[in-house]
Structures are given as C-alpha cells and as structure tokens.
UniProtKB/TrEMBL annotation:
It holds the Pfam family TctC. This is Tripartite tricarboxylate transporter substrate binding protein. It comes from Belnapia mucosa. Gene3D superfamilies: Bordetella uptake gene, domain 1, Periplasmic binding protein-like II. PANTHER family: BLR1237 PROTEIN, TRICARBOXYLATE-BINDING PROTEIN. The lineage of its organism: Bacteria, Pseudomonadati, Pseudomonadota, Alphaproteobacteria, Acetobacterales. Belongs to the UPF0065 (bug) family.
C-alpha cells in the first residue's frame, strides 16, 4: 500500500512530472498521426512536459489499441484511438486483443473527420442527393461505389447510403482514396462517401461534385453543401472520429485534468481554423460525454456492418 502512495501523489499533485507518450495505431503522415501531433504540441505547451507520439501500426489499428490497453496505468501513456477500433472492429473480428468496455479510461473526444458524398461531374448529372437517387435507380445495372477497403467507415457509409436510399449498388475496394478518385473520374464507379480531405482539390476543380456531408452540421469550407439530413437522409451522421483514452486504472485526477486541458485548448478559434484547414473539426468532451457518444453510436455502426455484408476475419 505504501508503495502506491508516491504514484497517487504524483498523479493528483504534480502530474505530469515526466514525458507522456501517445500511442497511435495508424501510419505516420495520415490524418490520425497529423492531428495527434497537433494535440501533442498543444498539451506539451499547456502542461510543461513533452507529449511524444509513438506509432504502433497493424491489424486495422488493433495493435496500437492493444498496446494502450496493456500499458501501465500510471499517467504516462495515453492513446489516440479511432472509433473504428471500438465500434466497428468488434463486428469484423471474431476476437480482439482488448475489450472496448473494460480496458480503457475515456478522456475526451478529439476531432471529427468529415465524410462527403461525391460523384464524378463528367459521368453523373445529379446536383442533389435526390437527383442522384433518382438517376441511380433508373440506371440499367445499378451503380458502384468505392472505398479504401472492406470494413472501413468509407465502405460502410457507401453501403449504408445504398440501403437507406434503396439503390442497387456494388462495392469496389481500392488501396486508398487516390485510386477511388481515378476510378470515378474514369467512369468506372459512380459515387463514394469518402473522407473530404482526399477530395477537396477535385471538388474545387469541378471534376467532382459534393452532394452532401455526413455530419450533423455543414462543413465550414463547403458552406453550400447540405448535410445528409438537409438533403433528405436524417440520421446519416456517419463520419469517422477519434478520441483520447488511457489504460483502465489510470488515476481519475489525470483523466479529468487532461480532458479539461483538451477542452480548453480546443476553444481557440485560430486552432479551430488550423484544424479545419487540415480536414478536421475539433470536438472535445468530458469523459462522461465521450462514454455517452460511444454508447449512442455502437448500435448504428453495428447495423452498418450488417448492411454492408462485411464478414468477420
């Protein structure tokens, strides 16, 4: 018991008194890594200790998520976790090396990454979601949509759109957004519900047409593009998002302090605009708010996996 007192004292008093590592389960250079480094920079400035990003990639983010779950709960390790690992992977893998309900202490929601319904302007005449649905239903043989892999939020969102709109649609998997764009511009597939950051350039050039964003609010950089709800599909808020968590057992004082610091940092308008320029919307939440969001979205993503036909590995 006495041996535990110094740790508790540090956590509640002078934390952080040494560097904090942030585990990221996806490769460097991607949106998850870039946004984590932005957050690490902010927390280092606010808390006076380095926040060091550590990449642990593989198995659709499961390796990094497992590393976080197995880390010592002493306040020196946190992780950027994709909602994919908590809400989708449990439906895609027969077993996971971590328990989403048991192994983590929730800190804060961090940011949303907008998905957008896009169509190739040269090959699809529709300018609204309603026009696209009517055109797709009248098209002999139906339509095809692209994604960066089976079970990704992009795949599930494209399948969910087809299901909600009653479309005859086939999924085509590519290695990434660039290949999906090439296929659409070539007329091989007719739509995608994909990450906006990959499409900004071709949308601005007029080669792609954005019909709706899969967010509760319009995206600031595309003020004329409606939300899915405004376009006629309410409840279609299915963009990927990320959160911060710590290993279960991390002192509550650490969790509360870090959550408060994130929420305070994210109120900075300049930082919000910087994030939008990087294709993300800063969110922030209390630990309780994060737990509530996960609970609310769990059945939605479970239904989307079922609708998509993706099979457990």
């Amino acid at each position: 018991m006495l041996a535990a007192l110094p740790l508790a004292g540090r956590a509640q008093g002078s934390w952080p008194d040494r560097p904090v590592r942030i585990i990221v389960g996806f490769p460097p250079g991607g949106s998850l890594d870039v946004m984590t480094r932005l957050a690490a920079e902010q927390m280092g400035q606010r808390l006076g200790q380095p926040f060091i990003v550590e990449t642990r990639t593989g198995a659709s983010g499961n390796i990094g998520t497992e590393a976080l779950a197995r880390a010592a709960p002493d306040g020196t390790t946190i992780g950027t976790v994709s909602m994919h690992n908590l809400l989708i992977n449990p439906h895609l893998f027969k077993s996971l090396p971590y328990d989403p309900d048991r192994d983590f202490a929730w800190i804060s929601a961090m940011w949303d990454l907008p998905n957008v319904l896009v169509v190739p302007a040269q090959h699809v005449p529709a300018r609204t979601l309603a026009e696209f649905v009517a055109w797709a239903k009248a098209r002999p043989g139906g339509v095809s949509y692209g994604s960066s892999g089976v079970g990704t939020t992009i795949h599930l969102s494209g399948a969910y759109l087809a299901n909600r709109a009653g479309l005859d649609a086939q999924h085509v998997s590519f290695r990434g957004g660039a290949q999906t764009i090439t296929a659409m511009l070539g007329g091989d597939i007719q739509y995608a519900v994909d990450n906006l950051a990959s499409y900004v350039g071709v949308i601005q050039e007029g080669r792609m047409r954005a019909l709706a964003v899969a967010l509760p609010q319009r995206w600031p950089a595309l003020p004329d593009v409606p939300t899915m709800a405004e376009a006629g599909l309410p409840g279609f808020d299915v963009s990927p998002w990320h959160l911060w968590a710590a290993p279960r057992g991390t002192p509550q004082a650490v969790v509360e302090r870090l959550s408060a610091e994130v929420r305070a940092a994210w109120t900075d308008p300049a930082l919000q605009q910087r994030a939008i320029g990087m294709g993300a919307r800063l969110t922030g939440s209390t630990p309780e708010g994060l737990a509530a969001r996960l609970a609310k979205e769990r059945p939605i993503w479970g239904e989307m996996v079922k609708v998509s036909g993706a099979r457990p590995e």
